[in-house]
Amino acid sequence: MEDIENLLEIADAVLDYDGEQVERLVNRELDAGTPVKQVLDIGLIEPMDDIGEQFSTGEIFVPEMLMAANAMKSGLNVLRPILAENKSEPVGRVVMGSVQGDLHDIGKNLTGMLLEGAGFEVIDLGVDQKPDLFVAAVEEHDPDIVGLSALLTTTMGAMKITTELLREKFPQVKVMVGGAPVTQEFADAIGADGYSEDAPGAAILARKYMDELSA
Ligand code: B1M
């Protein structure tokens, strides 16, 4: 119970847009031995849902949403080395990015960190990536998997175009999609190989693909 209260203090600091405090409290929890997943889920991810809700109801605006995102990132930066540890020989290579028109990158970054933690080499293209840039990145890096992230209903079209283009040009490369508005049905409809609703699920899916590719 005390642990939960400590974790809610992190969430409060995100809601106060106080990155320094988030960083300090996340370090405190790690020193105390609190499981990283709890710090991530309760301390960092859950308050972003509150932020989204506050934005939807007009209580806050884009600058506040950005400040909350930056506060959350201060905490993610502390967790990054832990989430990405266990590295040895890469089990596979993933190119990933947020699709054209989409500037959201927190979920993508988190997915990238967990893929690194699962042993993958991750080439992160960043945000707002045109379909052609994904194609060029596949030609350059020869990945096993491409991961696409979209957070806006308006950028799901770019996800569709990118997936179709990748499917046509590189049938051997697995395309994995995710992001808040994306669903399994949408993934199936656009011809993606797979969908995961969260970052840990994406790492599990990517491992499954590598098993299939090496079978
Ligand atoms: Co934006 N935004 N935003 N925003 N923003 C949402 C997404 C929104 C739902 C808020 C709301 O209205 N309630 C809404 C979208 C509505 C819709 O389309 N349905 C919205 C809007 C409207 C906008 C703008 C249009 C606002 C405006 O300008 N009027 C604008 C668009 C900018 C653009 O992209 N062109 C905009 C801008 C921004 C900021 C820049 C201010 C900032 C982003 C900062 C950043 O990312 N660097 C921001 C933020 C912070 C949010 C919310 C509040 C939080 C997003 C987030 O980081 N969540 C968001 C509301 C919400 O989601 N609750 C909102 C935490 C993160 C860990 O979750 O990214 O979902 P998420 O990732 C999850 C899963 O989706 C999954 O794994 C993660 C969890 O483990 N996942 C994958 C993600 N990618 C994956 C890939 C995979 C697998 C899983 O495989 C490859």
Detailed description of the structure:
- With 215 residues, the chain is of the alpha/beta class.
- It folds into two domains: 84 residues, Methionine synthase domain (Methyltransferase, Methionine Synthase (B12-binding Domains), Chain A, domain 1), CATH 1.10.1240; 122 residues, 3-Layer(aba) Sandwich (Rossmann fold).
- It is 60% helix and 14% strand.
- Strands 2-1-3-4-5 form a five-stranded parallel β-sheet, with helices on both faces.
- Strand 3, helix 7 and strand 4 form a beta-alpha-beta unit.
- Helix 1 packs antiparallel against helix 2.
- The protein starts with a helix and ends with a helix.
- It binds CO-5-methoxybenzimidazolylcobamide.
The residue ranges in which pLDDT falls below 50 over 5 or more consecutive positions are none
- Which homologous superfamily in CATH is the superfamily of the largest domain? Cobalamin-binding domain
Dominant shape: globular
The CATH class of the largest domain = Alpha Beta
